[in-house]
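Write out this protein's structure.
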Amino acid sequence: MRRATILVLLIALLSVIAPLPLEALNVRGHLLKSKTFLSPAFFLHPGSVSNKFYYDVPFPRGHLALKSFNAEVVDENGVPVPLHETYLHHWIVEPYYALKNSDSADAQKLPKGIIARNSGVCTKTLGQYYGLGSETRHTATWVPDPYGIEIGNPEKPPQGYEEKWLINVHAIDTRGAIDKLGCTECKCDLYNMTIDEYGRKLPKDYIGGLNCCYDQTQCKVREGFNGDLRKLFLRYTVTWLDWSDAVVPVKIYIFDVTDTSPPDETSGTACKIEYQVEECSPENRAKNECIDVKVTKEVIPRGGDIVFGVAHQHSGGIGASLHGQDGRLLCASIPSYGNGEEAGNEDNYIVGMSTCYPKPGSVKIEYCKDADR
């Protein structure tokens, strides 16, 4: 089976500035705002897959400090849909810069959109600001005071562009599936897939993964099973503050355990997103030692204080942790599994990831140019 372990880290670049001003410790004194939106509708029938990108989605506008972003899949009546019916493989949200006057003669040579990526470390993938999966209903995304994620700064877009937002939702309808877990793990034989979404032949040792459950693919369902076509949405709630000097900006870093960039590179160009977990050997199974551990080393582009950390894992995951070069534990994130049928407590699914919230200023990362990855 293939797994993904991704760690999201918010870092405040405070290591070279003075202590926080008194007003920064009282950010909540400013008006906290919140609004709930719906993504464009997507449609699923039993066994089908939707993995679409939606551009210029509804989002708060202005120079703001994001404090949280929470999301879940709901039906057309606003009722939360359980994972054993519609598996939320992942959702991501990120800003981009859109060309204002794309029809003008001068604009014909310019890109219509430029992704406004996070601060690292995967430069070719994982550029989102927020992103979760099945764990979305019980995973905290709150950015603690006095910190915030700065968006809508009018000085950031290139000339002639404006900031907009996109959402990607990857959902799998497992109603009537002959193997629900296999469908959510995107096993290629269940999808009858031998090529990826670009028509390229898959390697023989590629058993399953994103290349087999792309948009409009179909996982096997029981013969004779009938289910209605469903109209679904990603419902998301954004909480924010108006930007002010009282807010301390943070940087977003996403680490991928599959990153195999050479030690002398810090660009994260080798983030593969997923990897193959080999089957447990009979010897280890007999000793109840069927645990697969994967480790990578990273160089972060800058130092600062860790403000927030959380991991993203799929079923079977037991946790992720971030350690300093000296081995000390910096942050850990552990999954919780459901034990029922209702949305948010689905049996054997990861329904939440614990979030790491160090005491402000207590966990620092120092950037060393010559450090090992």
